[in-house]
Amino acid sequence: MLRLEMYGSEFYHHNACCLLAAKTISGRWVILALGGCPGNEGREYVLRRILCRAVRYGSEVLKAQEGFFNGLVNVVVKVMGGVFPELKQNEERIRDIIAEEETSFGKTLLKGIEKFKKAAQDVQGKILSG
To answer: Rg of the chain over CA atoms, in angstroms?
Structure first.
């Protein structure tokens, strides 16, 4: 249960991030168990974007370390495996996909942050081109 020690918009932002993480863990991993896979087109791209968004919020807001979502696979399998036996059957596949997506997105995010910092330093005036 979420501890209610934060108030105002800060609480709502934190709560929204926790809900995003929970929805990602429960719903999206079932999609992976049923054969879905993140990709660059169509439904696969939507799945990738949802996973990346959850990873970003997990690291920025929840202060989770890289591998946070991958570390939760066994918990989700224990909790939801009775209802979705595909989770148990595909646990290793799900863990591999989540680990790869977390690592790949983490590298991409770091590169993007570095590029932004460099561009922000080079900006003249108050407008960042592009």
So the answer is: 17
pLDDT band at 9 (very low <50, low <70, confident <90, very high): very low
68 burial type by CB count under 10 A (0-12 exposed, 13-18 middle, 19+ buried): middle
Going by C-alpha positions, the residue among 28, 49, 29, 30 that lies closest to residue 39 is: 49
- Cα 25–Cα 68–Cα 14 angle in degrees, nearest 5: 70
Mean local confidence (pLDDT), 99-112? 90
Lowest mean pLDDT among 9-18, 47-56, 98-107: 9-18
- Its pTM stands at 0.72
Report the alpha-carbon distance of residue 87 to residue 72 in Å, rounded.
12
Q: Position 8: which residue type? A: G
